Backbone:
């Protein structure tokens, strides 16, 4: 079993597509209208993808570890130092880099404010 996709509403569809393609070496599997003028894209690889949908209104992502909800999602990477350099090159600020086993990890916000974890085991 594996997660086939994660669905996220983003502030700027094209910016988010570029961010995730650059960050994780992904590609656009599909892009187009969802319903009416609502646009979306699937960004991923042959096994899984991020379903990105253009927000219709302004607003902020709420991350609250004290309440029910999705707080972040994580991707395993081969080289955390290279991943850190990519995150920084893309202009994201790493706000948490805990040191505990197993693995090395970093946390940051994507352009829409979703928290993302990258981990190397």
Residues:
């Amino acid at each position: 079993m594996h997660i086939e996709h994660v669905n996220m509403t983003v502030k700027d569809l094209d910016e988010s597509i570029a961010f995730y393609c650059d960050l994780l070496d992904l590609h656009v599997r599909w892009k187009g209208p969802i319903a009416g003028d609502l646009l979306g894209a699937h960004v991923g690889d042959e096994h899984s993808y991020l379903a990105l949908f253009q927000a219709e209104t302004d607003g902020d992502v709420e991350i609250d570890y004290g309440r029910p909800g999705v707080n972040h999602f994580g991707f395993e990477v081969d080289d955390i130092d290279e991943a850190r350099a990519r995150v920084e090159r893309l202009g994201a600020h790493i706000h948490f880099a805990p040191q505990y086993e197993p693995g090395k990890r970093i946390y940051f916000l994507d352009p829409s404010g979703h928290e993302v974890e990258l981990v190397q085991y």
